[in-house]
UniProtKB/TrEMBL annotation:
Keyword Transmembrane found: no
Organism: Nitratireductor aestuarii
Any GO BP annotation: L-amino acid transport
UniProt keywords, alphabetically: Amino-acid transport, ATP-binding, Nucleotide-binding, Transport
Family, similarity comment: Belongs to the ABC transporter superfamily.
SMART domains reported for this sequence: AAA (SM00382)
InterPro entries xrefs: AAA+_ATPase, ABC_transporter-like_ATP-bd, ABC_transporter-like_CS, BCAA_Transport_ATP-bd_LivF, P-loop_NTPase
Domain ABC transporter: 5-234
Organism phylogeny: Bacteria, Pseudomonadati, Pseudomonadota, Alphaproteobacteria, Hyphomicrobiales
Gene Ontology MF, one: branched-chain amino acid transmembrane transporter activity
Entry protein name: ABC transporter ATP-binding protein
Length: 235
């Protein structure tokens, strides 16, 4: 399977406290790869390391032959990697359209991209001139994803995109992840719910104490759900 991104034995710290320990992960092209683990296991830090928001002290992260872990954060988006952090982080004072424009500008994308993204989230099309702080939680999450997609990423990093949403919104976000998967976007998805993992993942990596304990195909997890308990002690 062709590789979209390779994390090779990275070590990351907050001050002197080590949080990631020789963490390795392969993202295959077109897969939805779920990171699953307890609170504080290091899932968000892994995404931040990819985006250059946490320094990789040793080890490396490689995309298309480029060692991106050597680049400053503002360079990394240019390599077609987009990040939707936990808690959305929109520009609340700006409208839906303006938030999308910020995404488009990051990699000089235009009307065609915007249309493609709005087709994925038709609900946003009806609200282009609405201030984003007045959107519902689920709509804000859609906008955060839509803005990330405006850079036309080939690697998308999603940190618990359905957290705190009502079931109908969760279903729409999952549909969008599935549609992106079908379009060939490779996704790393941090997800706390096993049912969601089983529904949309291609593979799952269990993260514990800043290490990947095991990686498996979702069909293996479906066949042996008790593996969740074995690797993370929950579920
Ligand atoms: N800015 C920071 N400064 C110091 N320590 C931090 C910082 N951010 C995270 N940590 C610590 O690093 C560890 C890993 O945190 P991280 O957010 O990566 O975990 P997580 O697996 O995403 O957890 P959750 O499921 O709760 O979001 C935790 O012990 C956390 O307290």
């Amino acid at each position: 399977m062709e590789q979209a991104l390779a994390i090779q034995s990275i070590n990351c710290f907050y001050d002197e406290v080590q949080v990631l320990h020789d963490l390795s992960l392969d993202l295959s092209r077109g897969e939805v790869h779920c990171l699953f683990g307890r609170n504080g296991a290091g899932k968000t830090t892994t995404l931040k390391a990819i985006m250059g928001l946490v320094r990789v002290r040793s080890g490396k992260i490689v995309k298309d032959g480029v060692e991106i872990s050597k680049l400053p954060a503002h360079e990394i988006a240019k390599h077609a990697i987009a990040y939707v952090p936990q808690g959305r982080r929109l520009f609340g004072e700006l409208t839906v359209a303006e938030n999308l424009q910020i995404g488009l500008l990051a990699r000089n994308k235009g009307e065609e991209t915007r249309e493609r993204v709005l087709n994925l989230f038709p609900l946003l099309r009806e609200r282009l001139n609405q201030r984003s702080s007045t959107l519902s939680g689920g709509e804000q999450q859609m906008l955060a994803m839509a803005r990330a997609l405006c850079v036309e990423p080939d690697v998308l990093l999603l940190d618990e995109p359905t957290e705190g949403l009502m079931p109908s919104m969760i279903a729409r976000i999952r549909e969008a992840v599935t549609a992106l998967h079908e379009q060939g976007v490779s996704t790393i998805l941090v997800e706390q719910r096993v049912d969601a993992v089983l529904e949309i993942a291609s593979r799952v990596s269990f993260v514990e104490n800043g290490r990947v304990k095991a990686t498996m195909g979702v069909e293996d997890l479906r066949a042996e759900p008790e593996l969740v308990r074995k690797y993370v002690g929950v579920g």
